[in-house]
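User: Hi! I'm working on a homework problem where we have to compare a predicted structure to a textbook description. Could you give me the structure for the chain below?
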Amino acid sequence: MPSPTADWLTDHPDIHTIRAAVCDLNGVPRGKRLPLASARKTLSDGSRMPLSVSNLDIWGEDIENSPLVFESGDGDGIILPTERGFVPMPWLNTPSAILPHWAFNEDGSAFDGDPRHALSAVADRYTARGLTPVVAVEMEFFLTDDSQDALQPPQCPRSGKRRQASDILSLAALDAFDDFFSELYEACAAMEIPADAAISEGGLGQFEINLMHQSDVLRAADDAWLFKWLVKGLARKHGYAASFMAKPYLDSAGSGMHAHFSVLDARGRNVFDDGSDQGSDVLRHAVGGCLAAMHDCVLIFAPHANSYDRLVPGAHAPTSICWAYENRTSAVRIPGGSPAARRIEHRIAGGDVNPYLALAAILGAALNGIEDQTQPPAPITGNAYAQDLPQVPTDWDSAIGHFETSAQVRRIFAPQMIQNLVLTKRQEQAKMADLTREQQTDIYLEAV
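Assistant: Happy to help. Predicted structure tokens:
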């Protein structure tokens, strides 16, 4: 993979400062603000930073019993720029850029607690088999007004009115915030984030933007991570708050991050396509792997206390472990269309996920199924909510416990990643238990 160079800075002389950023377990950017001179140095040498920074809770505090803190002396690792290179920050008044990094141990080996390395390890498994996953994600989010005690939809800049109903696929709802969306697309172009169609979704002030398919899964996750950072920053510039919370309003739809993927062989052929509407045996094996790991991976797809408000029957989020053709009540959906474009849509993840961990869990589970030739149960028809089907965990505590002890999870994630995530979530769970839903919302609103 190509390495970032200082040429970008030469070509962008207006840039004043750089953010050297890593992604923590909750998807929160952590790092340093650098002057340009230091940014040029970090391109070649990287920077030193405590490895524990990748393993902070949602408040940004150390995990009390983490082996990365006092037990090891809270030692430094090395953060190095990823192949992504410099990315502008169009929402700031002062011209600035992000330089994404990932973490390595002192000896130069990958730090297994870094979410990007978790996805890279899964990508390497595909490469070893001569396969390439092609991935796209759908990013759902809310625009909100958080200036009062209770969240509410933002005022339309033109009318001053607030959205009172879901208004699904309403062009008027999009046009009401045209200045925001026009600037968002301009910013995506500047950041090289492949933003595609935008729609008005089912929640109050809820929207969705699709990111286009690409064969570099690390870049796809980078795009999702950077997109969340951009949307939240740009919304504040326009006087709103943007949130990828799973469920900001109890009586409204929640936000998901649906992942679509196909798999190419060494000749560039989609191995899910056998010319039929049903797809190939390999597609069914991948579906089988996704279903087999889904129950134990829910902590990845629903990582926060608020996540479980979304996972309720009949609320447009899947709760049954099942698959189907062209059926949005199922957790795994096979969309229609040309057989050459046959793909899997994994629908369980909330908008509040860490994109690197979510894609690692989805693609890792699918590859387990391909390797094991796992046969899924028969696809369902009709309303999944009304059928007697295996269910995902619907509470945080159960999800943490199943993730910690799962053999399926151990095939996808390194032991250090499993330990770090479990310790983080148990600390957050203990703290959240003493807070009201309103207090939890205040914490999650922009953090995730």
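For your comparison, note the following. Residues 2 and 83 are 6 Å apart (CA to CA). The first strand starts at residue 17 and ends at 23. Good luck with the assignment!
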